[in-house]
Design brief:
271 residues, alpha/beta, Rossmann fold, 9 helices, 14% strand, binds 1,4-dihydronicotinamide adenine dinucleotide
């Protein structure tokens, strides 16, 4: 799986890590479909790729809508015949003590971060299996898929679920002898608009959730990798066929600590 030809589709491709992936994959020679709920963002990214000599097409899609994802999959296979790489990347943030999280916000976060990955798999994987040639599904979780911390219950729960879903998908694909492989991506800090887009969606009361969320937003901007650099690490991992894919060396270290904690049945620790 060299990821140098064929078609790739990146959900949430209009910004951040998704945008970095779109640019890197197009530079390697893939035709990249930039799928985002914000069509303006997707078009801007596709336009930039084409200006740089690559091939990219913008698509408007809401990953929370299974019918829309099904229609997109039909369109992609009709036009391109096969899909060599699907990246289920779209994701959003929120904050708050577990008992403070607004149920509507919990639902909308799960709808994007977890249901969106499920809808991507359900819409595309049967067709990818059917094409009979090698292909990869990459589900973007987070190092938050193997760590825990206060104020991040909804986001962390969604990312642990994406890791579990991806491992189960690995078993299902192996069971049916498919040439489709799956990877799960665990990015560390990457400098993107994810916290800014979440706006004031952390409770602002006395619990400290608002301050914590603001500190995370600042950390993300000050300590985060450039998305284009992070995408290089991700694409290298996918091209090698790694199941666990990281953006930096902290990811494997956090996984090791999680393994030790489970082995020792230790109390939860923070990264
Ligand atoms: P971002 O906010 O820069 O980009 C996310 C994109 O997803 C946006 O263009 C947005 O319009 C799109 N999107 C949101 N809801 C959508 C929907 N319902 N349907 C289709 N598109 C939708 O975010 P970022 O940081 O690039 O995040 C990408 C993925 O990486 C997410 O899954 C996030 O959880 C994960 N991640 C990010 C980290 C970071 O430090 N930025 C760290 C670990 C994981």
């Amino acid at each position: 799986m060299t990821l140098t030809s064929g078609t790739a589709l990146v959900t949430g491709g209009g910004s951040g890590i998704g945008e970095g992936l779109v640019r890197r994959l197009a530079e390697r020679g893939m035709t990249v479909l930039v799928a985002d709920v914000d069509l303006g963002r997707a078009e801007a990214v596709a336009e930039r790729v084409r200006a740089d000599g690559g091939e990219a097409v913008a698509h408007s899609v809401d990953v929370t809508d299974p019918a829309a994802m099904g229609r997109l999959a039909g369109e992609v296979f009709e036009r391109h015949g096969s899909l060599e790489l699907l990246v289920n990347n779209a994701g959003i943030e929120t904050g708050g003590r577990v008992w403070e999280i607004d149920p509507a916000r919990w639902r909308s976060l799960m709808a994007v971060n977890l249901d969106g990955v499920f809808h991507g798999v359900a819409a595309f994987v049967p067709r990818m299996i059917g094409q009979g040639s090698p292909a990869t599904v990459a589900n973007v979780a987070s190092v938050g898929g193997v760590t825990t911390m206060p104020f991040q219950g909804a986001y962390i729960a969604s990312k642990h679920a994406v890791v579990g879903l991806s491992e189960c998908l690995f078993h299902d694909l192996a069971d049916v002898g498919s040439a489709v492989r799956v990877s799960v991506v665990l990015p560390g800090w990457v400098r993107t608009r994810i916290f800014a887009d979440a706006g004031g969606l952390a409770p602002q009361g006395d619990s400290g959730a608002g301050e914590h969320f603001e500190a995370m937003r600042v950390s993300n901007l000050e300590r985060g990798l450039d998305p284009y650099d992070a995408a290089e690490r991700i694409v290298d991992g996918l091209a090698r066929g790694d199941f666990w894919v990281f953006t930096d060396d902290r990811g494997p270290e956090l996984m090791r600590r999680r393994g030790e904690q489970l082995l020792e049945r230790g109390l939860p620790t923070q990264p």
